[in-house]
Design a protein that fits this description.
With about 200 residues, the protein is α/β, with parallel strands linked by helices. About 30% of the residues lie in helices and about 20% in strands. It contains 6 helices and 6 strands; from the N terminus they run βαβααβαβββαα.
Length: about 200
C-alpha cells in the first residue's frame, strides 16, 4: 500500500551516490527500464561523506543528502551490508569498513569466518535505498535476502561478500550466479522493488 506521505519521482535525471562499481552496475540495471538519465558519483565528482549513522537507513539518507548538496540534483544512495545472526548482526553497517582500504574484501571474509567459527551460518544481506530531493524530502526503501554463509569462498562473479553468501532456495553463492540470476534473489533488487512501489510506480 502506498504511503500517503510519500512522493512520486517525476524527474528525468538523478545521481547514483556510490563509488562502488558493483553497486552502480546493479542499480543502473534496475533503473534502466524507467528512462531516467543516471549520473554516477564518479561522473558527478562526488566526495564520499563519512558514514556516521548507526543504521543502514541513517547512512543511506546521509549519503543521498550529501550528493544532493554537491550536485543540486535528486540523488539515490545505497547503504548495504552483511548481517550474520550468530555475530549479533555484524558486520552490518561496518561491512565495508571490515574490508581493506583498497576495497579488497578478502580480509573481511577471513574475519567473518574466524569470528563465526562453528556457529550457525545463518545470515542475510540488507540494503536500504534513500532517494533525496533538493528540497530535503527523502524516501527510504529496505530489502533483505536471507541465506547462509559458506567457506571457502565460491565463485568469481559479484563483489564484496558475494562469494560466501548462498541465498535461501539456492545451492550457489551470489558470486557463482550471473548478474541476472543474482538480481532475482538480491537484497538490492528487493529494496528497489519497494522503492519502485513508493516513488516510481507512475512512470
Amino acid at each position: 500500500m502506498k504511503n500517503f506521505d510519500s512522493r512520486s519521482f517525476d524527474g528525468d535525471r538523478l545521481v547514483l551516490a556510490s563509488h562502488n562499481q558493483g553497486k552502480l552496475a546493479e542499480l543502473r540495471a534496475l533503473l534502466s527500464p524507467l528512462g531516467i538519465s543516471v549520473l554516477s558519483a564518479g561522473e558527478a565528482g562526488l566526495t564520499a561523506p563519512e558514514e556516521t549513522g548507526a543504521t543502514f537507513e541513517e547512512n543511506a539518507a546521509l549519503k543521498a543528502r550529501a550528493a544532493v548538496g554537491e550536485t543540486g540534483l535528486p540523488a539515490l544512495a545505497d547503504d548495504s551490508g552483511l548481517s550474520v545472526d550468530a555475530l549479533g548482526g555484524a558486520p552490518g553497517v561496518y561491512s565495508a569498513r571490515w574490508a581493506a582500504a583498497d576495497g579488497d574484501h578478502a580480509p573481511a571474509i577471513a574475519r567473518v569466518e574466524r569470528e563465526l567459527g562453528e556457529q550457525d551460518p545463518a545470515a542475510r544481506f540488507v540494503c536500504v535505498l534513500a532517494l533525496a530531493w533538493p528540497d530535503g524530502h527523502v524516501e527510504l526503501a529496505r530489502g533483505e535476502a536471507a541465506g547462509r554463509l559458506v567457506f571457502p569462498p565460491r565463485g568469481e562473479s559479484g563483489f564484496g561478500y558475494d562469494p560466501i553468501f548462498v541465498p535461501e532456495g539456492e545451492a550457489r553463492s551470489f558470486a557463482e550466479m550471473t548478474p541476472g540470476e543474482k538480481r532475482a534473489h538480491s537484497h538490492r533488487s528487493r529494496a528497489m522493488a519497494a522503492m519502485m512501489d513508493r516513488v516510481f510506480a507512475a512512470r
